[in-house]
Design brief:
With 509 residues, the protein is α+β, with helices and mostly antiparallel strands. It contains 19 helices and 12 strands. A hairpin with a 4-residue loop joins strand 5 and strand 6.
Length: 509
């Protein structure tokens, strides 16, 4: 089937329409019914790479989908049949005009939507893993992004500005990330940067061989270990999982709160544990950065959550952009308090917590929640880490188990040194800069040149308010112009109707 074939476009249309209707909590639109969970998951798998990756993002959104859909969406794995021998040979010859390998296993040990991994040895006898990009994958993904973008415009009238911006953020972030994932060269750069930034993290990373890498192939050291969720092997080798989970949570705390540079795809297949109990991180196609304002807002959110200061929690959520700036703080604070009561109840198991949480979210689904681009993968990583913890620790959840660990790291995330003398030296070192900044501020104030900065969230709120205020006026003006034209043409009855419609639009705005 061609990438732009009518049948493929139709299937994408039905899939996206189902997604959008589920988000809007509507069973049908213009005679089209929402696909059932089984049909939805089958359609995703049939359409391939782009939509498997899109579902991995959407499956983090408990507010978008009912639980019966989330169960099926989360069960869709990024595992596909390997390339045909012909395609594999074509990619290999393009990546390696002169083979550097002493041996190369034709049968891949892993096969995902973007590429597949083979075992090989270099001429020196060094064992390596070779990741080959699928033949034609970039062309297909770019075509899918174009189709999704066009259909998203078609479906825009279904959504309010708040929901529309959230969905557009998901699509924009998904499109940017999946294109980056298509480049093995980009993945190598991510791996090298990650290994440098987190050299002291006590986590193992593969060692890349840049001289053999290209856009079609990534050659790296072969890392052996058990999957994170392989309970039987971990038990057989008497590996204590509790400190490894703690190390994983601390590592992701460091990534998201301290360094702002994080691995966004920590599923069990990308996390290995070797017999020595070392944690090994693989696959660096999804690596994201968090801007400093977002990182600080997350820290304040965690602090407010740990202190159960619900109004401060809502304020931080607004700065993150997950809640509209002009949203009612008191109503959101009440919602937040109810959610924390659920997740802080030790008498509830994970299933009961989730059920109650969905009921509360259903009652408040009209609240203006949003999803900025930077938050998409933060939520995804948080959900995956929580799922990994639940594999071994009963009732493991983000509020009860992760928050205390994050709370202990807040000072370090804000740049506070561990020792008193270190902090004192740091403050003294910055005093000249602080005095210079204070003097410059006083000078500008005396000259009346102080500037006030408005956050992007405030600007967006003002823009939406202005659009809502001007829309009825513009419509009334257009109707009035139509009435004037009707009078000039001698059509008095239509003119009166148009004048009446203009007045009604202004009156009921």
């Amino acid at each position: 089937m061609g990438i732009y074939s009518p049948l493929r476009v139709w299937r994408i249309f039905r899939l996206l329409l189902s997604f959008y209707l589920l988000i809007k909590k509507r069973p049908r639109f213009l005679g089209f019914k929402v696909l059932e969970p089984e049909e939805l998951s089958e359609s995703v798998v049939r359409l391939g790479t782009s939509f498997i990756k899109l579902v991995q993002v959407l499956a983090t959104r408990n507010d978008f989908f009912e639980e019966r859909y989330l169960v099926h969406l989360r069960s869709i794995h990024d595992d596909l049949p390997p390339m045909s021998p012909e395609h594999c040979r074509r990619v290999f010859e393009r990546a390696f005009p002169e083979s550097p390998f002493e041996t190369f296993e034709d049968t891949p040990i892993a096969s995902a939507s973007i590429g597949q991994v083979h075992q090989a040895t270099l001429q020196e006898g060094v064992r390596v893993a070779v990741k080959l990009r699928r033949e034609g994958i970039e062309k297909r993904i770019l075509a899918d992004i174009r189709i999704i973008s066009v259909l998203n415009i078609v479906f825009q009238p279904l959504f309010s500005p708040t929901t529309r911006h959230s969905i557009e953020s998901v699509i924009k972030e998904f499109s940017a990330m999946i294109v980056q994932e298509c480049s093995m060269r980009r993945e190598r750069q991510n791996l090298e940067r990650f290994s440098d930034v987190y050299a002291d993290s006590s986590i193992r990373f593969p060692l890349p061989y840049p001289e053999y890498c290209s856009d079609d192939a990534l050659v790296m050291s072969f890392e052996e270990g058990f999957r994170f969720d392989d309970k039987a092997s971990l038990s057989a080798h008497r590996i204590d999982i509790a400190p490894i989970i703690d190390r994983l949570v601390r590592f992701y705390t460091d990534q998201m709160l301290v360094k702002g540079f994080f691995h966004a795809d920590p599923h069990p297949g990308n996390l290995l544990i070797n017999p020595q109990g070392e944690l090994i991180l693989l696959d660096f196609g999804m690596v994201k950065r968090i801007s400093n304002p977002m990182r600080v807002a997350i820290i304040e959110l965690i602090r407010a959550a740990n202190e159960k200061d619900y109004e401060a929690y809502v304020s931080a959520a607004k700065r993150m952009g997950t809640v509209a700036y002009d949203a009612p703080s008191s109503e959101l604070a009440e919602f937040t308090e109810r959610m924390f009561e659920i997740f802080g109840n030790d008498a509830l198991n994970s299933g009961s917590m989730q059920q109650l949480a969905f009921e509360v979210m259903e009652q408040t689904r009209n609240l203006p929640f949003k999803l900025p681009q930077e938050a998409i993968y933060i939520l995804r990583v948080s959900a995956i880490i929580e799922g990994l913890g639940t594999t071994y620790i009963e009732n493991f959840n983000g509020i009860k188990d992760i928050l205390p660990i994050l709370q202990r790291n807040i000072p370090r995330a804000l740049g506070v040194k561990e020792g008193f003398l270190d902090n004192l030296r740091d403050e003294i070192r910055h005093l000249p800069d602080d005095f210079t900044a204070a003097r410059e501020t006083l000078r500008r104030a005396s000259r009346g040149e102080l500037n006030v900065e408005i956050s992007p969230r405030q600007i967006e709120s003002f823009k939406n308010a202005l659009e809502n205020a001007l829309r009825p006026i513009v419509v009334a003006l257009m109707l009035s112009l139509g009435a004037i034209g009707s009078f000039m043409a001698g059509w008095e009855n239509p003119a009166y109707v148009l004048i009446g419609a203009a007045m009604m639009r202004l009156w009921f705005r």
